[in-house]
Design goal:
The complex is a heterodimer of chains A (410) and B (220). In chain A, the strands form 4 sheets. Chain A has a 7-stranded mixed sheet, sandwiched between helices. A 4-stranded antiparallel sheet of chain A has the order 11-12-15-14, with helices on one face. Chain A has helices spanning 9-16, 41-53, 64-84, 98-108, 129-136, 155-164, 186-195, 215-218, 243-248, 283-299, 301-320, 349-360, 372-378, 394-409; strands spanning 29-30, 92-95, 115-120, 140-145, 168-174, 199-203, 222-226, 237-241, 259-262, 267-269, 325-328, 339-344, 362-363, 365-367, 383-387. Chain A contains 14 helices and 15 strands. Chain A is 40% helix and 16% strand. In chain A, strand 5 (168-174), helix 7 (186-195) and strand 6 (199-203) form a beta-alpha-beta unit. By secondary structure, chain A is an alpha/beta fold. In chain B, helix 8 packs antiparallel against helix 9 (183-193). Chain B is an all-alpha fold. In chain B, 77% of the residues lie in helices and 0% in strands. The two termini of chain B are 57 Å apart. The chains are: A alpha/beta (410), B mainly alpha (220). Chain A binds chain B through residues 348, 350-351, 353-360, 403, 406-407, 409-410, and chain B through 42-43, 46-47, 49-51, 53-55, 57-58, 61, 64-65, 68-69.
Chain lengths: 410, 220
């Protein structure tokens, strides 16, 4: 029992009060946080307040509601810039989600034929398909850095590829894998890439909700994340880009709000981030995301990390005693953050997830987690993934383990 | 077989719930794949199996384990039983429909058991028959059950005796009346055609009364 390292459980219980989804009877054991997180009252309230009290168009309408919308959205932009340590709020572009952020870069960066985009072999489809599409259009080539046998990032191989290939334009890698929770050594990756004058894009969707990040310290060129994986609403995400790079990027989607003026034969684009934010924005989503950032700031990443690590350690310890279970990724739970992906010998992962759901109201994910390429490359059909957040508790982890034991006994 | 049985079951449940309609669609897709000699999508079978095992795990782990390990066998057996029950009930349904079309009753041997069709001719109310028979109160359940059948028996006997007294032409006309099943009309018809119809009724009541009393005494 990891009681000594566990955060104050009373405090966690108090935090759980903020989440209406957890107050249901029968209470769920929600272990699918890598897919999406639950929303606290504050986020729901921020969204509702906009929809109920001052629904208006930001950046356009000069009346009081319009101005309030603009002001609050820009405040949120500043808040997010501060949250991730960006230099300027203009470096924050609101997008639909991380997928849209990556697609924006893939379609807007000025690639030349023969340019290479390098990814890892553990990329979510959102950081693989845009590059494959570009490769199919013969605009660029796509290269892969294979992981080590323990599924961690192979820095040596990465260096080797960078020394060998001269046309690498961009390294686009997942910051923390949604497959096994492993966080890549991104600081080193960025440093090595920059030495070769190669741009770096980080898919930090699974990092920003769980770890404190500092863009200034990382020095990444681009970074994306989604709001709904960090207590925020669905349909809102962020693309961070260094201002000078955003200024150079072509526009991806054009329309209202992206130009200062237009004529029958020309138009004048606005500066970033506006030139990327076409059409009426998801204002309630932006304000909800702002509330989520405030809430996470209030909780503190130290506490978040501690709770996730203690849950992962407990489950990993228990799983070690079950020879039927094979965990995907590094053996050390501290290297897997908030994720335990695993397979049970002779049991179908879909079946395991469904039995957990039907018999004990435990919600986990089964399948390939949108990392089909990794599974296909290893001829593994699928896996079960339990992913936690700070509102999950040790008793929940115990229920989970108990039910896994039952499934093994079947 | 699994797909077919699932399709039947979920189609029926789908009448009441949208969720089951979706399952029925999946079962249909599964069945169509079978017909085109492609393997059924594993997802569907896994989903159904997990739901069953999950439900059982919650209640009884031993039973869940038993079912899990013999799932394929149990599914085959259960599917066979369901299909067999469909075949048997299908046979009886067709037979009943045939009887209904031909004999105006799905069970011609005991028309009172068939809710459809015109059923038995009712010349007298049951209470009136029992009053006329003037039998002692039933002493036990067996006697009571015998009494219950007496109104039907006496009416059949009256119709039979009366029919024998009719000419061939009158019998054809009488058959038509019987099909319509109007008791009052039948009584009127027989009273006009058979001058001693009242005696026929009286005789049949008398005979049945005696037979009943005799039978009951013998049994005692």
């Amino acid at each position: 029992m990891p009681s000594q390292t566990m955060p104050d459980q009373k405090e966690i219980e108090k935090i759980r009060e903020d989440f209406p989804a957890l107050k249901q009877d029968p209470g769920p054991v929600y272990f699918d946080n890598a897919c999406t997180t639950l929303k606290p009252y504050f986020v729901l309230e921020a969204e509702r307040e906009y929809e109920e009290r001052f629904t208006a168009c930001g950046e356009r309408s000069a009346h009081s509601w319009g101005e309030k919308t603009t002001r609050l959205c820009e405040e949120t932009r500043r808040k997010i810039a501060k949250f991730i340590g960006a230099r300027k709020p203009e470096e924050i572009v609101f997008v639909k989600n991380a997928t849209e952020g990556i697609n924006l870069v893939a379609h807007s960066l000025d690639f030349k034929e023969g340019d290479i985009v390098l990814t890892s072999d553990k990329e979510h489809n959102s950081n693989l398909l845009p590059w494959l599409w570009q490769a199919k259009q013969k605009k660029l080539k796509h290269g892969i850095v294979r992981s080590r046998s323990d599924n961690t990032f192979d820095l040596e191989k990465f260096k080797e590829i960078l020394n060998r290939e001269k046309n690498i334009k961009l390294v686009s890698v997942v910051h923390t894998s949604n497959l096994d929770g492993h966080t890549f050594p991104v600081k080193e990756i960025i440093k090595i890439a920059h030495q070769k004058e190669i741009l770096v894009l980080l898919d930090s969707t699974q990092t920003v909700p769980h770890q404190k990040i500092n863009i200034k310290d990382l020095d990444t060129d681009f970074l994306v994340f989604s709001g709904h994986k960090m207590l925020g609403p669905t349909g809102i995400g962020v693309l961070y880009g260094k201002l000078e790079l955003l200024q150079q990027l072509n526009s991806f989607i054009l329309g209202g709000g992206t130009v200062s003026n237009s004529f029958y034969d020309d138009y004048q684009l606005l500066e970033p981030p506006q030139k990327f934010e076409a059409g009426i924005q998801n204002y309630s989503g932006i304000l909800g995301l702002g509330a989520a950032v405030d809430y996470l700031g209030k909780i503190g990443f130290e506490k978040i990390k501690k709770q996730e690590e203690s849950l992962n350690s407990y489950i990993t310890e228990q799983f070690k005693q079950m020879p039927e279970i094979k965990i995907i990724g590094p053996a050390d739970p501290k290297e897997r953050g908030s994720i335990v992906a695993f397979n049970i010998k002779d049991k179908n992962p879909q079946e395991v997830a469904e039995i957990l759901n039907t018999s004990a109201n435990i919600m986990v994910r089964a399948g390939q987690f949108c990392v089909h390429s990794w599974f296909n490359g290893r001829k593994i059909k699928s896996a079960v993934r339990a992913s936690f957040y700070f509102y999950n508790t040790l008793p929940e982890a115990e229920i989970f383990v108990k039910n896994i034991q039952k499934i093994i006994k079947l | 077989m699994f797909c077919l049985v699932s399709l039947i079951i979920f189609s029926i449940l789908g009448i009441f719930s949208l969720a089951y309609r979706k399952m029925a669609k999946e079962a249909l897709a599964c069945l169509l794949r079978k017909f085109s000699f492609r393997p059924c999508r594993a997802d569907f079978q896994v989903k159904i199996r997990s739901k069953i095992i999950g439900f059982l795990t919650k209640r009884n782990l031993g039973l869940a384990s038993f079912v899990y390990q013999r799932y394929q066998l149990l599914v085959s057996l259960f599917s066979f039983l369901i299909l067999a029950s469909f075949v048997v009930s299908g046979y009886f349904s067709v037979k009943s429909l045939y009887n209904l079309a031909i004999y105006d009753s799905c069970t011609p041997e005991s028309p009172e058991n068939c809710p459809f069709g015109k059923g038995e001719v009712c010349l007298f109310l049951d209470e009136a028959v029992m009053k006329e028979l003037d039998l002692p109160a039933p002493a036990d359940e067996l006697t009571a059950s015998v009494y219950q059948r007496l109104p039907t028996i006496v009416q059949r006997r009256i119709v039979l005796s009366a029919t024998q007294k009719l000419s061939q032409g009158e019998q054809i006309e009488f058959d038509k009346l019987l099909k319509n099943g109007d008791g009052e009309e039948i009584q009127k018809f027989l009273s006009v055609r058979i001058p001693d119809f009242k005696n026929v009724i009286k005789d049949e009541f008398q005979k049945l009364r005696e037979e009943t009393l005799e039978t009951l005494n013998l049994e005692k």
